[in-house]
Request: fold
Amino acid sequence: MNFKKNLLLIISVLLVVLSANVVMAKTYIVGTSADFPPFEYVEEGEYVGFDIELIKEIGKLKGFEVEVKDLSFDSLIPALKTGNIDIIIAAMTITEERQQVVDLSIPYYSANQSVIVREDSDKNMTVLFGNHNIGVQTGTTGDLWVTENLKDTGILKGQVKRYDTFVYVINDLINGNIDAVVLDTPVAKRYSQLRPVTIVAEIFTGEEYGIAVDKGNTELLKLINEGIEELIENGTMDKLIDKYF
Reply:
């Protein structure tokens, strides 16, 4: 009888320990803009891509789960500041302006900007000059670069047309409503494989991408930075880069 009681007690203790471990696995809401292949996009109803796998791998290493939430790119930082999401991973370039309102991780990827036009177009990099209309996604580095270097200086006489997602930008380019699009080079390469568009120029901006958390959330930032470093050291980062690029 005593043996049975002790066995039941041991089983009960084990169940409590296991339950405690399950409860301790925290879930973070990760905001992204899932129109940016190969970093983040939707495939068969699932959020996939380099960034999505990266944050999940960090979670595995550092003991947390992730729930992905799709938002327009320019809504991500406001959502982080209001507490609707905990983390941003969306091929977000590390800039001084962003670092004033959020904390960004160590860099995990480097990229430039590219100019794409329709596949049947005879335009080249001169599309950035004169009376042409350029499409960008609102709030991206491409948007800032075109605005500051072309529109504000008077080099570009046409319009800078801004869109919530790159799906709309690319569709408008293909439909002939704009003359060119400026976007991150890895994404431009991906779209040139998927849609009838082609890259005509690369702008060397030397950007670095970081993962964002709310200002002052040092504990979460530390976990993410440690995770990036560990993924680089154990070779997982190279495997993800090989897979998507």
Q: What stands out?
A: The chain has nine helices and eleven strands. The first helix runs from residue 2 to 24. The chain has a mean pLDDT of 91. The domain at 111-206 is CATH 3.40.190.10 (D-Maltodextrin-Binding Protein; domain 2).
